[in-house]
Amino acid sequence: MKYAITVLAAAILSACGGAKQDVTTSQDVTVSTTKQQLSYPATRQGAVIDTYFGTSVADPYRWLEDDRSSETEAWVKAQNEVTFSYLDQIPFRDDVRAKLEKSWNFERIGAPFTEGDYQYFYKNDGLQNQFVLYRQKDGAEAEVFLDPNTFSEDGTTSLADIEFSGDGTLAAYAISEGGSDWRKIIIINAVTKEPLEPTLIDIKFSGISWVGNEGFFYSSYDKPEGSELSAMTDQHKLYYHKLGTAQSEDNVVFGADEAEKHRYVGASVTEDDRFLLVSAAVSTSGNKLFLKDLTKENSQFVTILDHTNSDTDLIDNEGDKLFLVTNLNAPNRRVVVASAAKPTPENWQELIPETEHVLRMSKGAGYLFANYIVDAIAKVKQYDYSGKLVRDIALPGVGSVGGFSGKKADQQLYYSFANYTTPSSIYAFAPASGASDLYNSPKIEFNPENFTSEQVFYTSKDGTKVPMIISYKKGMVKDGANPTILYGYGGFNISLTPSFSVANAVWMEMGGIYAVANLRGGGEYGKAWHTGGVQLQKQNVFDDFIAAAEYLQQQKYTAADKLAIRGGSNGGLLVGAAMTQRPELFKVALPAVGVLDMLRYHTFTAGAGWAYDYGTAEQSAEMFQYLKEYSPLHNVTSGITYPATMITTADHDDRVVPAHSFKFAAELQAKATTVNPQLIRIDVNAGHGAGMPVSMVIDQAADIFSFTLYNMGYQQLPE
Q1: Out of 3.40.50.1820, 3.40.50.300, 3.30.950.10, 3.40.190.10, which CATH number does the structure's domain 70-101+454-711 have?
Q2: Is 634 a catalytic residue?
């Protein structure tokens, strides 16, 4: 299946760029707590100092950035011993894990899709570490096509992507080992399942786009020398792999020009194999767009967009008509039609105008589907290719949908529906009639009728109204005594729309409240909402989150001693900033795989690509000072009682490198008062989160919930 490749870069890591002094003197710091009876491992302090615009900044734990050193390895082991010894004493931890495992143990089936003579679908029997890809033909019994659970003994190698050739007889699939963003691509005969040639290696931030049965496009960087956590080159390249040739012979199709480098290059081939669209970006927001006619030998790229002032992607084509979705001159996005002969913006014709709501697009069965985000809730409209509205699609309820995509020849499409209290179900959709029929509903031991979600709008520090969805068990009393997790992200134009989580369902069944705030920096209200939380506006995101916590307490959903804050990646930065700015407002802080060193994040892996959202410490004296004032690592103060904190990260995270979490934990352990524990939980042979085996997900969720409730004062599980 061919579709536009959108290159993700969500939130990542750090390393600095001032004048570095690496001095070998050090001191050991050992912190003990009497109340929790914790003795943290000794963490050596080096005398590294960086200078930014005449200001010296100490970085005593710089040595923890070296993930290959035996000293760092020993520190990780020692920290895990302390953390797991602490978790082992929690009397109800085993009960929490048992609840999670029981709730997780149900069959989950994905939407089917057709490739060649087969219909494919993903299925997990319940507690399988990875979903299995099945196929069936003409109603025959389904057979296993690919089982990622056999890729490694411990289940940590996952299926990251699979794409079939146009006729479905060939397939190329990407695997991730230990959660790494680096991929390998394996090419097989899709009929016999036999490998066809040697595995392609060292591929990163890439899609797979076939051209007929001859070959496919993929993207990668030159792999950095030394540690895989080193800063990536800013030159992402698009390659073409012709079947039957060695990877060393793959041609660079785009990105070879040293004079014009792009950090993210993605490719999309139209369903008719006529055009190649290349998206090129220097950051996580904004892309250039180029067109190549594949039917003409030695054709040159034609520029559609020569700047990165907008986000523009291909939806589909009809002959030489290109259907694009863009926020150029339309912050909430619109659909335009471009001619391949004259594809530049001045020649675009508007097909679906911008509205007050953010637009996401998909296509299938000869129709276009406009998925609008209305206060974080999905509304879907069906259009034909002339721009005529066919119908407003009746959805099963208030929540989020995914799908409505497929080939032009498909007669039936599928979509998923879920919200915070409704497990994800698959619906079959008939484009001709607009009818939806339930295709698969999971048999889970969770009754949505016993729970409710409500959306509220609260006021942030500067008067901005911010939405939040609060979910809980019916009958909950607003007495300020409810254990509550407040979750947020607030960055990279990413929208948090209602979704179902088995773990959060268990949390609510145990009497917990789960609240999600739609902070600025996200994409819920278009480009203006995003830019309202970037660079010198980033504090707005933290203010929005803090205001959400204050609202929950003012309205008696919970109180400070029963409130936990949680977020991952860019959301880990959010939690780190909130807990260092308003430590008294929260009882528990749960920063996961967070970007926590804002002065050095851009020097690790692909971190430089996040500068659109964050800015960098070298950008200007003003930007340096702004970053330093909120950087969680640089705002831990001696003698402050910080919330009970459990940082979570993984030793193979090559997106937001674990050094962020390592250094933040060391600072907290050295400076925080002894009232609350300051722990770090480090998964081994895992990455940023994608592809993590179910067993590790359950273990982590059990530890997080147990730590949270225990530090809220519970000695047994709440009713």
Answers
A1: 3.40.50.1820
A2: no
